[in-house]
Design a protein that fits this description.
By secondary structure, the chain is an alpha+beta fold. The chain is 42% helix and 21% strand. Strands 8, 9, 10, 11, 12 and 13 form a 6-stranded antiparallel β-sheet that branches. Strands 4-7-5-6 form a 4-stranded antiparallel β-sheet, covered by helices on one side. Strand 1, helix 2 (31-45) and strand 2 (52-56) form a beta-alpha-beta unit. Helix 1 (5-15) packs across helix 2 (31-45) and helix 5 (115-124) runs antiparallel to helix 6.
Amino acid sequence: MADERGRKILEAIVADPRVSALIVPLAGAVDMFSEGLSRDCVAVQKTTDKPIFMVWGAPPGTDDHYYHRMLDGGLPVFRTFGNCVNAVKAYFDYWAFTRRHRSPFADAPTAPLPAAKKAKRILADAPAGSALSEHASKEILKAYGIKPSRDVLCRSAAEAVRAAKQIGYPVVMKPASAALSHKSDLGLVKVGVSSDKDVRAHYADLDRRARKAIGNAGSRSGEGRDELDGILVCEQVRGGVEMVVGVSRDELFGPVVMVGLGGVFVEVLKDVTFRVPPFGEAEVRRMLRELKGYAMLEGARGAEPADIDALVDVIVKVGRLAQDLAGEVAELDINPLVVRPRGAVALDALVVKR
């Protein structure tokens, strides 16, 4: 650092094809080191297109001569090593992104899919700004090829018994109403219903309690509320990883797609990531790898790996739905989306109309 060998060492390092960048920490305060090394780094930077990043550890106001020499010489200078390596990571992440990035807008679809017509017919029946029932929300998912659980909307206990036998015990039972968007919180989801007798009993109980909850919600808001559509009898899905896939609306970007760990984890861990459509499968896979819980999809602690291809397919379809229905859908929430070793199933869904 104190003689002509310093520059030769710097030149040898940046000439190495295996080196992409150089970080030089300087503690400062010692003229015999700071003088030569700061001057040499500025000189070498002019001979290479590889970035040289400096860490100048002297407190602000001391040895500012060297600080300004490096800064004016075109070198990025940081006060702490942590800030420096964060910036270097961002620098290389940016160039990695630009190498792989191809604008999705060049060949983005301009005409909605035929599925949009069916979805718009379903949405047309809902008042502006209101939530759709789970049954209606899942019909929109089905239009876009997203598989929901096998559900039957029943309007009598006898219909519910027939549906349960058709689906196969055990089943899940819950009310279907646009006024009931948080059924689990109200204790209105019955899991593991395993006999005709239990179906009849739960049907009566859910019907009574759901109508009471709808009435209470209407009286609190001072507005009329939607009626109870009926009771859903659903297949009980076992195993798999619970994910959440959603659409929200950003004031600047418009529709934004969110993916994360679902079920109770979405509120507790908040392990989610976002993308603005249009995007393709490759971007969805990068999106998933950003999640801290990605290892669960790969089969953590001996569990069978989840069908990541099926999950990617659902997210791509949700992205297309968000584009096609940007003028009609304010929010979409699929939670949970159970990703099994083969396939993915939407157990619950909520669509809010713009």
